[in-house]
Amino acid sequence: QVQLVESGGGLVQAGDSLRLSCVASGRTFTSYSMGWFRQAPGKEREFVASISWSTYYAEPVKGRFTISRDNAKNTVDLQMNSLKPEDTAVYYCAARRGLSTSRLYEFDYWGQGTQVTVSS
Questions:
Q1: Which of 15, 61, 102, 104 has the fewest CB atoms within 10 Å distance of its CB?
Q2: Which residue blocks in the chain are alpha helix, DSSP H?
Q3: pLDDT exceeds 90 at position 53
């Protein structure tokens, strides 16, 4: 069982940066691929980025967002630069055993989410 807790969301202006962090419980953090997903109002939850031995990004965030992990601290971060109003969403941290994927249904554990709002 893995418990995930996100932090770092907030209200920012377009062009600003924000860093999200997710802390995972458990002693086998390195066994898990970690991902970030987001859900905007009225829309389905969508893939943002994931990391295992490699990193993967959704096209809308490539070049602006960076996912990283610190296995010693059981954390995975999402650095978000050049934020746009369309990045407004609740951002969720997720974990799964095995290789990284962009498929939402393949992640087993989810955090409660953190709100990111980008004003124009």
A1: 15
A2: none
A3: no
Look at residue 10 in the predicted model and tell me its pLDDT: 97
Q: How many residues comprise the chain?
A: 120
**Main-chain phi, psi angles of 75, to 5 degrees:** -125, 150
Cα angle for residues 29, 33, 36 (degrees, 5° grid): 110
CA angle (3, 19, 50) in 5-degree steps: 55
Burial of 101 (0-12, 13-18, 19+ CB in 10 A): middle
pLDDT in tens, 31-45: 899 999 999 999 999
Mean local confidence (pLDDT), 15-31: 92
Sign of the alpha-carbon dihedral angle for 86, 55, 79, 72: positive
Distance (Å, rounded) from C-alpha 62 to C-alpha 115? 20
In this predicted structure, the answer to whether residue 77 has a pLDDT above a threshold of 80 is: yes
